[in-house]
Amino acid sequence: MIDSHCHLADDVFAPDLDAVVARARDAGVERALVILEGGNAAEAAQAERVTALWPDVRVSIGVHPHMAHQFADDPARATAVVREQIATTPDALAVGEIGLDYHYDYSPRDVQQVVFRGQLALARQLDLPVVIHTREADEDTLTLLREEGNGRLRGVLHCFTGTPALAAAGLELGLYISLAGIITFPKAGDLRATAQQVPLDRLLTETDSPFLAPVPHRGKRNEPAHVARVVATLAQLHGVAADDLARRTSANFHSLFRP
Fold this sequence. Notes:
alpha/beta, 8 strands
């Protein structure tokens, strides 16, 4: 199994990082993609701890839409920060998470869009995949992906909770769809129905830990070991064995991120 999106560099994991990594490996998680906030020195330092404990992890670096406001005076600086950090981080293999979030609006929408567009262009220039965060911003997210992608962007809609229309549009753009613990929630019937329609060769699994722990861990801190619950749920939805689902989604991860 692979956890294609987690935040192991978050300080919430600092006290027991070694135990978290051990549980993941014991659960059969072969690799994880650790998401880093561009320019965050504390996360970069903890990522080095993660890599020392778990050499098979890789990282993705980007400016999240919540943090785009920090670059309001000079949006191009966000791209420069991410470019420089990727260049000095040997295990970096993606740009993200990046995107648009109109639910919280922690950053002005116009600033989010400019910062997002710049990072999409960077990913295209570096020939790296993108890890996309989109919330209540489907139309603008897709517009920017179409305008900047120009058929040359690969990536994933992470922690997918969107509509069947968003899933279909993402697939048409060549993107992968990644599911997290929300798919196990009792009221997530619509999401499970959408997940059933995603082809097996375009699915990824993730935890988005420390957030969104799956049932039966809901309400507690999430961690990479719990990706097994996502794998089991998706396997049931697609009518395949969990081992088969894990094998296929792991192959998808390798195809997209080329680790």
